[in-house]
Every structure is written in C-alpha cells, then in structure tokens.
C-alpha cells in the first residue's frame, strides 16, 4: 500500500517531520557557531594576560642585563657589537637592546593583527593562539637586538624618549576616560531617571575621600620634602600642585561646568601622586630628601620597592593596553557575537610604546647615565619628566572641563550674530 506524503502518522504528518528537520538543522548550526565564538572570545581575553606576562618577563630581563649581566654573561663580551669590554650589551646598553627586542615583537604583532575585526579571521587565530610560534618570534626579536650595531641602538634610545612620551599621553587619555566613566556611574544626571540615592551618596563619599587624601598628601610632602626654605624646587612643585587641585575643584563646581566633585577629586589625587613620584625620583640630597640606606646589592626594603615599581610599570601598560575603546575615533555601539572583544592593533601598539617607556625608566631617561642597582626612574631627568606630565595632565583635564562651555558660548554668539544680520536685512 502506497502512503500519501501528507498522510497523518500519529499526531504529525510526514511533511511536518521533514519541515522540522529542515528547521532543526540550522538551529544546531547556530548553536555550534555561538559556542565556537564563545570559545574564541575566551581565548582572545586570555591572550591579554599571556602578553602581559611576556611584557613582565621582558622587564625582568632588562633589569638582569642592567644590574647583573656584566658579571654573569661573559660570553656576550666577545660579540663585536658589544664593544671592547662588552659595555654596549650591559647596563644602559643592555636595557635598550632588550627594550628594542620587546618593541620589535609587539610591532610585528601590531602589523600582523592590524584590521582584525571578526573572531573567525586568521588574524584572530594568530593573536589568540599559535603560542609556540610567537615564543620563537619573541626569542628571535631579542637575538636580533643583540646583533644590531651600537649606532642604531643609540638612535633607538633617542626615539624611545618620544615613544615613552606617547605612552604617557595614551595613559593620560585612558585616565580621562576612566574619570568620565566614574562620573557617569556615581554622579548621574538628575534628568536621566536613574536612582540617585545610593550612587549619589557613594560618589560624594569617594569625592570626600579623594580630597582628604589629596590635601593630606600635600601636607605630608611639605613636612617630608620641604624642611628648609632652600628646597625651592620641592616647595614650588608642592605649592603648584595644591593650586592645581584647588583650581580643578573650583572649575568643576562652576555653574556653567557643573561637573561635580568626583572626577576632579580623583584627578587631584592623581596629580598629587605624580608630584610625590617626581620628588621621589630626585637624587639623594641631605637637605631636601631623607637619604636612604642602600646596600651594594640592595636591602630588603629597596628590593620590595623595586618589585612594586616593576609591577606598577606592567600594570600601567596592561591597563592602558586593554582600554582600547578610549583610543578609537569611531565608537562601535553595537557588539555582534562574532566581533573581537577589543582592538588587537591598539593593544599591541600600547605595549610597543610601553617597551620604550620601561627602557627610559630603567636608565632614568638618560642614555649614558649610570644607574644604581635595584633602582628605577631616579635622576633629575626623571623628576622633570614627571613634573611636566603632572602639569600636562592637569591642563588637559581643565581644558576638557571648559571646552564644552567655550564651544557652547561661541555657538550662541554666532547664532545671535546671524539673527542680527537677518534682522538688519
């Protein structure tokens, strides 16, 4: 007996079964694709920490070549590019060569991942996986940096100063974006309709803590680093920092700006930290700075401070690198399931600039300046770099506060002028 295709079988028809199979197959494919994208997204996010570990390892390698490479790595002294005594591969020269190797590695990663947008691209696979090949690439980059002539290394050292300055600027942009995020989260606009009780109270609490910490830090710096009137540089730096904190607070509270106290309080705390860091970078001086006992190989407090400073470098680079949305000219509002979670080229660019930055910190921004063991970023050059960075940070923040007011006033003035012209006509 021949059955009709539409003949009922149980509660379903044969046509219904076929239709269900056709609908079910795409659904399975969709589920598999979503699972694959989720796995690749996790691999991409995990890759950030592996790159951060590589960067941290490079910092340790640079420190090793600066402080102990001359005593341990005797074989490098016979390489022609290292000079007669091998000095060009140790101390400041060793730091610059390791930094160059790190810069080459992340520059190659920048070029090879440029334009990656989707998780199914080959560039995503290269960024998130293939770690054996990338490890070999890192080793080759370090080896290349130790066979390059001295002249090129000196040129790289000059360029690294510019790259380190770019990194500080990127870090400042990331900081300003963080302040904007804090304001939007904890100092919401009353017209937004959000619950203002908890968020407003928490924002006020953070603002109060930030200002108390800022002014307490200023008083402590006067006590510790300006004990005599002869400490002119320290007195000027601390006083100007206090003035900047007050100016930022007044501008934030101005009726035309009305930005609240939270972002200005956190920014004030940040520039106070930069001022303290600048004074700490000054060479040891009996009059204006309490001299610290430093054994030849470093005592335990010196070693702990060094390790904390090293971790701070890595964390600053990592936090700036993962904040890729702050450096995009076009903000992508819609995030599709197959989009990469962050911009790979920006991430690697930040780390390549970070390679130049840590080189400058290890050699105190001076190419031929001898550095003390277990020390980072000590010297007058380092001090003035941090002071200028503080002033630049405060200036950009103030401009960000007042620029909308100026543009709005100019627009109103232009509109009034056009109305007057039309009325005369």
TrEMBL record:
User: What are the UniProt keywords, alphabetically?
Assistant: Membrane, Transmembrane, Transmembrane helix
Q: How does it sit in the membrane?
A: Multi-pass membrane protein
Signal peptide feature range: none
Localization, per the record, is: Membrane
Its GO CC terms are: membrane
Q: What InterPro entries does the database record attribute to this sequence?
A: TDE1/TMS
Membrane-spanning intervals of the chain: 49-68, 89-111, 131-148, 160-181, 201-225, 232-254, 260-279, 300-322, 346-365
Give the similarity note.
Belongs to the TDE1 family.
**What is the recorded name of this protein?**
Probable serine incorporator isoform X1
